[in-house]
Amino acid sequence: MIKVGCCGYPTSMKKYQEIFGLVELNTTFYRYPKTSTVVKWREKAPEKFEFTVKANQDISHKFKFKSEPSVKAFEQMKEICKALRTRILLIQTPGSFRPDKLKDAHEFLSKINHEGLVVVWETRGPSWDDPHMRERLAKLLQELEVSHVTDPFRAMPTYTSDVAYFRLHGLGERMYYYQYTDAELKRLHQLVEPLEAEGKQIYVLFNNLSMFDDALRFMRYLETNSFPSLTGTVGLESVKSVMEKTRYPATKSVLLKKLGWRLVEVEEGKQVKLNELLKGIPSKTYGSVEEVLREIKL
Questions:
Q1: What's the Cα-to-Cα distance from 27 to each of 7, 32, 137, 204, rounded to whole Å?
Q2: Which of 31, 55, 59, 164 could form a disulfide with 160 if both were Cys (CB 3.0 to 4.6 A apart)?
Q3: Tell me: the pLDDT tens digits for 51-82?
């Protein structure tokens, strides 16, 4: 089974929970919410709505898996997970946490008492891409039954337990500033489908600026084998619907920075990044959407 959701709420909690059945709770990374607050979150959500939880940065960024303080922080996170009836706790280490610290990770992960909680770990940074390091990491994770979390477009996990957990951050030059095409979302399904065939539970969490739309489109594709329209229109009307998402007057450079990463449908089934259309317009300040549209050539 493939479960789809977002990293955090990109819209109101009520609207989100009417559409999706899964969210990764990110506020816990920055602070420890009161138990009473967490209980209210659980009570307000639909009965079958699922929370996964991102562990507080004390574990991964402040104490960096140093045994005693990190274990204490983990115990606090367990209480939050219990109140939410959460099955999965995500630990994300920064790019500065490199393979030479693997011993610290092993010591911490060996000491914690899961109590039925599934712990998953997202490594970051190119130092983990080395084949030898991936082999070492896989051995450690398999020993401790901890799933490796990756962005599948960048690398597949070295090891997964019965849970495969993916976080998608976008493929653009600027992290998060990205919108996935239909073709890329089809490719995403191809990447995770073999793990589903093995009987694993697949979690796909979008963590890019268009995560709500991308997660919804991917979910609809899984349900119907087809994608909903990107903007509901094609051609210049599609461009207009995206161009209206910023304020005017605006310079060409501002439009490229704010909107260039977004997709438009120039014709049915053909999607392009808006920057491909904007890069050809004159460099000046535009007073309105209509003024920009007059310069765009499809």
A1: 10, 8, 28, 19
A2: 164
A3: 999 999 999 999 999 879 999 999 999 999 99
User: Beta strands 88-92 and 118-122: pairing type?
Assistant: parallel
Structural contact between residues 89 and 53, judged by C-beta atoms closer than 8 angstroms? yes
Tell me the pTM. Answer: 0.95
- Distance, in Å, from the CA atom of 132 to the CA atom of 139, rounded to the nearest integer, reads 11
Q: What percent of the chain has pLDDT over 70?
A: 100
| CA angle in degrees (0–180, nearest 5) for 227-232-238 | 115
Enumerate long-range contacts of 281-286, CB under 8 Å, 24 or more apart: 281/252, 282/252, 283/251, 283/252, 283/253, 284/251, 284/252, 285/249, 285/250, 285/251, 286/248, 286/249, 286/250, 286/251, 286/252, 286/255
Residue 283, both tokens? 């460099």
Question: Quick check: helix, strand or coil at residue 31?
Answer: coil
Rounded CA-CA distance 279/282 in Å is 8
CB atoms within 10 A of CB 8: 16
- Let me know how long the chain is: 298
* Residue 157, burial from CB neighbour count under 10 angstroms (0-12, 13-18, 19+): buried
Q: Where are the alpha helices (DSSP H) in the chain?
A: 13-19, 35-44, 57, 67-84, 102-111, 131-144, 182-197, 211-224, 236-243, 252-259, 274-278, 289-293
Provide the pLDDT for residue 173.
85
Q: Cα separation of 153 and 175, whole Å?
A: 13
197-218: average pLDDT: 97
Cα distance between residue 167 and residue 69, in whole Å? 27
Task: For the chain, list the domains and their CATH numbers.
Answer: 2-224 (3.20.20.410), 236-293 (no CATH)
